[in-house]
Design brief:
Elements: H1 2-6, H2 11-18, H3 20-42, H4 49-69, H5 71-77, H6 86-97
Helix pairs in contact: 3-4, 4-6
């Protein structure tokens, strides 16, 4: 909210123009997360072990790709630290699943 206080724009203008990119990115990430969560939930209804294994791999791959694309947020929030090569570990996981 610090950026809002420094801005001379009205609240609506601030959200619509200054923070528009953040709103779009957050909306897109939310849609991706919901897709991931629905896939994970739907996997509980699969009876065939082979199909379940394939869906689990797809779910893991999708999660790793999303994490790789947005790992900067994990650094910003403190989940990741610069001492550990998380990006390399994520890529290694993606290569293992392929």
């Amino acid at each position: 909210m610090n950026a809002r206080e420094k801005s001379k724009a009205t609240k609506i203008d601030f959200i619509n123009s200054i923070q528009a990119q953040n709103v779009v990115e957050t909306s897109q990430m939310h849609i991706k997360y919901i897709s991931f969560a629905l896939l994970k939930e739907k996997m509980k209804t699969v009876k065939c072990a082979n199909n379940l294994a394939n869906l689990r791999n797809i779910c893991n791959l999708y999660g790793l790709v999303l994490l790789k694309a947005n790992c900067h947020a994990c650094f910003e929030c403190g989940y990741f630290s610069s001492q550990i090569p998380y990006s390399d570990m994520i890529l290694e996981g993606i290569h293992e699943l392929n």
